[in-house]
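Box 3.1 A note on notation
Throughout this textbook, protein chains are presented in two layers. The first layer is the amino acid sequence; the second is a token string describing backbone geometry. Keep the layers aligned when reading.
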Amino acid sequence: MAMGMAGAIFFTAQNASAIGPAARHAERPASDVTLVAQRKELPEKYKRRVVRFSTTERPGTIIVDTNNKFLYYIEGPNRATRYGIGVGRDGFGWSGVVNVGRKAEWPSWTPPAEMRARERRAGRILPAVQEGGIDNPLGARALYLYKGGRDTIFRIHGTNQPWTIGLNMSSGCIRMMNKDVEHLYARADIGTRVIVIGPGNRHGNVDYKDRGIDIFGTIFGG
């Protein structure tokens, strides 16, 4: 699982360089501003929406559907906020039931040794540690996923490459638009149950159904 560490594995040496604390604070965007130019319009279906959602899981639970590239935060009976996500490339997919064990704003990124070695063989040099900031692949927020009190090395995090939402681009973690991960971060507390539906069926049987956009909820409660 260590090979499934978060991050944009196609980072170049140039854009993987760290920035100093003063510059980081000066350049950090407001919560609703994305400073990285988007290379293409985000497909409509991946934009944040309130949806009619039936499930036996309790409000406050996060369900991640890696096949369809959606993350759901269950708000209450028959209602959830749906976010578009990017997930791991083929071969890095995973599944399971975990909890949010830690949260961080503008987190630093420590790529594991296996990732650094793999990328070095491909001619890309990753830093040992990259401090938080707008050029950090973990984006504006990170929710660290734990199981049995131990860090799984998987995260739900933001991204400075918003055009990758809906794609398989990272090494196994769950990436969101910065404005979306900030929205989720404010709702999901430490201990939040996270069900990741993906390869291996380690999540078990999960009953849920997305019944489409809740127009009223999207306008007034999204």
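The two ends are 34 Å apart (CA to CA). Residues 113-121 form the longest helix (9 residues).
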